[in-house]
Design a protein that fits this description.
Helices cover 3% and strands 35% of the residues. It is mainly beta. A hairpin with a 6-residue loop joins strand 23 and strand 24. The longest helix is centred in the N-terminal third of the chain and has 4 residues. The N terminus and C terminus are likely disordered. InterPro entries: FG-GAP (IPR013517), Int_alpha_beta-p (IPR013519), Integrin_alpha_N (IPR028994). It comes from Streptomyces minutiscleroticus.
């Protein structure tokens, strides 16, 4: 998922965040920057190669948590629901079989895994049982983009001491960790009641499983990026340990793949994103720290930027000493910080105001409004392009009650459960999609707003809900959106 304007090196593959541009106008539209979506075209999920980014929607709670993934092709009018492709483990060519509790679609990523020049789709199913009877060992499914996702394979962990309950697939990311031009896969297992593991599948098919935590973990997320600028993709893994504290593990790429990880001094959170926010050519890490106690965060949550740097062999490529944080009590940030707002539940990076600097979009699904509790909002924060961090100047709060946006915010909607900024219409300008996981008593929905001639027309917003996507009752659609953020696996 591309998050910065630097052109990706040939053959590099990442789990990119979407990028775009936006600034509010008095007329009810939102002018977008004329610059194109900054994600390299080879790394956005454009499976049909028509120039429009396809929206990948994971619905792990669908059909009694059997799970599904729906791909909505991009078109001139936005995601094309009529041409949607629904993927379950009962779909032709998809390995495995539908089973209650598999949670197929809990995490998704894209990358060219087989080196054929076409994007492939990687899907996590942390509740999958293995063929030897180990419950909830978890599995990763890789679907071949060139085949139209009708061919693929799956894999699970190599053998930890207790395979049952590993839950691999709670978070996934794709990167070229050894810089050989093919995508490698890292998947995280939360270890229900046991230990947290990570499994790496190299592009040659070899796998390795390593201990991540000596107790069960949750709220996992993972992103790939080149934090130190050495040409190898690195990985950041977010998790909360069994004592209720959140951490970020950083592992550096090398000619031999990922090296042993080290914990970042900055606390973890609920979501991760990357982009070059200070303009030095290296990727920086954005951490959404939605919960106060586990992240030592401000009341109501916050967003922290940790900057990438060149490093000595003994250093981490992210500089915790210069990290910058913003919350709703920061100067000029709209709104007010309140316990339970959950700012940082989802994060994405984009140049939304067209000034050439990366900005941050974050979800606040726990935000209360005059309409009730947990209506939810999304907040656009301006970047400075320096290590001074984000600024509240020009920041905008968005909700279902903003301007001419269709619909009405209701208690429990959780608007901002996930967020996307990318070109969904092929016009070169960024479009917006926001998850509303609690809409319609937990059925969930996605609000998508197009940009045309550099302007977001809020009145033209389109909802993709249970009927449009074909999900079951209570599926909480809008919890997992590809290109939005590397989602924390626990549902929020």
């Amino acid at each position: 998922m591309g998050r910065h304007t630097r052109t990706a090196l040939p053959g590099r593959f990442r789990t990119w965040l979407a990028a775009g541009a936006v600034a509010l106008t008095a007329a009810g539209g939102v002018p977008a920057a004329q610059a194109a979506d900054s994600a390299p075209a080879a790394s956005r999920p454009d499976f049909d190669a028509d120039g429009s980014t396809d929206l990948v929607v994971g619905v792990p709670q669908d059909d009694s948590s059997t799970g599904r993934v729906t791909v909505l092709p991009g078109s001139a009018s936005g995601p094309n629901a009529a041409a949607r492709k629904t993927l379950t483990q009962d779909s032709p060519g998809v390995p495995g079989a539908d089973e209650t509790g598999d949670r197929f679609g809990a995490a998704t990523a894209t990358g060219d895994i087989d080196g054929d020049g076409r994007l492939d789709l990687v899907i996590g199913a942390p509740g999958e049982d293995d063929t030897s009877g180990h419950a909830d060992r978890g599995a990763i499914t890789v679907l071949d983009g060139a085949s139209g996702m009708t061919e693929g394979f799956s894999f699970t962990t190599t053998s930890p001491s207790t395979p049952a309950g590993v839950g691999v697939g709670a978070a996934v990311t794709v990167g070229d960790f050894d810089d050989d031009g093919k995508g490698d896969i890292l998947a995280v297992g939360e270890g229900d009641g046991g230990q947290g593991f990570q499994t790496i599948r190299a592009d040659d098919g070899t796998r390795s499983t390593m201990l991540l935590s000596d107790g069960a973990i949750d709220h996992t997320a993972a992103v790939s990026a080149d934090f130190d600028g050495d040409g190898y993709d690195d990985v950041a893994i977010n998790f909360r340990d069994h004592l209720g504290k959140s951490y970020v593990m950083v592992e550096h790429g090398s000619p031999y793949g990922l090296q042993s990880g080290r914990l970042l001094e900055t606390p973890g959170g609920r979501s991760l994103a990357v982009g070059d926010l200070d303009g030095d050519g290296r990727d920086d890490l954005v951490i959404g720290q939605a919960a106060t106690a586990e992240s030592k965060a401000h009341a109501g949550g916050q967003v922290t930027v940790v900057y990438g740097r060149a490093r000595a062999s003994t250093e981490i490529a992210l500089d915790a000493a210069t990290a910058r944080t913003v919350h709703q009590d920061s100067p000029e940030v709209p709104g007010a910080a309140e316990a339970g707002d959950a700012m940082g539940s989802a994060v994405a990076v984009a140049d939304f105001n067209g000034d050439g600097r990366m900005d941050v979009l974050t979800g606040l699904p726990g935000e209360d409004t005059v309409n009730g509790a947990d209506v939810g909002m999304a907040l656009l924060l301006s970047g400075t392009g320096t290590r001074d961090g984000l600024t509240g100047t020009g920041s905008v709060l968005l909700s279902q009650d903003t301007g001419a946006t269709p619909g009405v915010g209701e208690p429990g909607d959780r608007f901002g459960s996930d967020v996307v900024l990318t070109d969904l219409t092929g016009t070169g300008g960024p479009d917006l999609a926001i998850g509303i996981s609690g809409e319609n008593d937990g059925d969930g929905s996605i609000l998508q707003i197009d940009s045309a001639a550099g302007v977001y027309n809020l009145a033209s917003g389109v909802y993709y809900g249970r009927t449009t996507i074909g999900t079951t009752s209570g599926a909480r659609l809008g919890t997992v959106l590809a290109l939005a953020t590397s989602r924390a696996s626990a549902l929020v």
